[in-house]
Design brief:
seven-stranded mixed beta sheet; 4 helices; alpha/beta
Length: about 180
């Protein structure tokens, strides 16, 4: 009876079995979910818990029909217009006092994946950051870099979650941060 909310990252989209498992785990039976746009409706969604509104963005959606679109050098690092519009509409219609947005790639990576996260296209990143500020998003939670960090940019805390294993490689946390 404990709901699990999967965030789509590059490792999930690289494996069709993982993506199938994530899509089949999508369920609004325990927590009512507001599905994302068609094409990513089981991997992008929002929901409310108490006075918190949470938006889960699939950053590897192509903006049309493929919610597992990703190739290094050809995917990631960009929020398509359709996803941006859905997030903007979703954030604008919630009355919850606290807003948290989750996406795999950070807007401001530190150490690892600098230049190939959401910082790859600075104008696209800044458009998303300005949306977060205007809609009073308190926290943007990300992964991807395998390092943990907290940065305050404008009025938004950007929290990099770190790693779930021993990140002993260069530029990664030397401890399990989750």
């Amino acid at each position: 009876d404990i709901p699990i909310f999967h965030v789509i990252g590059n490792h999930e989209v690289e494996n069709s079995e993982d993506m199938s498992a994530v899509r089949s785990a999508y369920s609004s039976s325990l927590v009512p979910l507001n599905p994302g746009p068609a094409g990513t409706d089981k991997t992008t969604y929002s929901f409310d818990i108490e006075n918190l509104h949470i938006v889960n963005m699939n950053l590897y959606w192509n903006g049309r029909n493929n919610d597992a679109w990703f190739k290094y050098g050809d995917g990631g690092g960009y929020v398509p217009d359709a996803l941006y519009k859905w997030v903007k509409t979703d954030l604008a219609k919630t009355s919850q006092p606290w807003k948290l947005v989750v996406g795999h790639e950070p807007l401001y990576p530190l150490g690892y994946h600098v230049g190939n996260s959401l910082d790859q296209d600075v104008s696209n990143r800044d458009k998303l950051e300005n949306l977060f500020i205007s809609q009073k998003v308190a926290v943007y939670l990300s992964g991807h870099t395998h390092t943990s960090a907290v940065q305050l940019k404008g009025s938004v805390y950007h929290v990099a979650t770190g790693v779930t294993g021993t990140g002993t490689k260069k530029d990664k946390d030397s401890f399990a941060s989750i």
